[in-house]
């Protein structure tokens, strides 16, 4: 954990240094390259061998696909409250993104020529769903369904017994996905890129992943399309005296336990007292969590606490960091100002309940 004061000497340089993202380690590049080569050259056998070597899984190619009965069964077996939450999430995500759907158009220019743009869905899209992340199944599956993609295929890691989280399967089923495979990580990306004897390749892959998965996407880019090549996930929270320390601590810890150990979390406080209370709450909540090894790594190497004197300074820090997730846990009359002043955040959540 590092502490900085906005008006301290060398602040800008130290902030810039902290924000730097390290290059992908060579061992990751080499490992990914070998796995992709095995899949490209050996197909299904290459996938099975990789699963056995890396994950200790002994699956036959005939067991890769998740059956329709498993997808349907997951919906039937899931607790009612979870099923309700999934359905509501799908509806909410779809409603939001319906407004962003590009619309085809035509017009006549001043020379009398017909001009325009035409938008149409890709023929076959692959969705990568990291372990247990039903939210990713919803955020990718709901959008693909909204875009009316004809063929949707999902890939997600499985447990040692070949099982997949029922909430993930139910989310896929409710998003209209009928083709899914219990294949994860680099193997999933390679399969989507090159195809095998039993699995067709896709036009483009969507979905997040760890450093190995992102590197795999980088290496297959050009063979297929990829959504993006993000660095480690990050969150920046601006908090003042009105913020609930429990909420802020929970949001920071939720980001820290993502899984790579390379996540970055930023706390921008309007006073030292706010920062002190939030850090005390982090220690309390840590006792109740399970992924403490990963979290401690992030808290030690990827947590920066900045104390500012004004909301303007807080906005300047946020704009420099350009966080993936931006949370404003401040007085209600400051929300509008900060939302307008912060121009580089990927997503802005207003208020403690919006995380």
Task: Provide a descriptive summary of the structure in words.
The chain is of the alpha/beta class. The chain is 47% helix and 16% strand. The strands form 3 sheets. A 6-stranded parallel β-sheet has the order 1-11-10-9-12-13, with helices on both faces. A 5-stranded parallel β-sheet has the order 6-5-4-7-8, sandwiched between helices.
Beta content comes to: 15-25%
Q: Give the strand order of the largest sheet, numbering strands 1, 2, ... along the chain.
A: 1-11-10-9-12-13
Note the gap between the termini: 22 Å
Mean pLDDT across residues:
94
**CATH homologous superfamily designation of the largest domain:** Nitrogenase molybdenum iron protein domain
CATH architecture of the largest domain: 3-Layer(aba) Sandwich
What structural class is derived from the secondary structure elements? alpha/beta
Give the % helix.
Answer: 40-55%
Biggest β-sheet: count, sense, barrel? 6 strands, parallel
For this structure, the CATH topology of the largest domain is Rossmann fold
The succession of helices and strands, N to C, reads EHHHHHEEEHEHEHEHEEHEHHEHEHE
Number of helices: 14
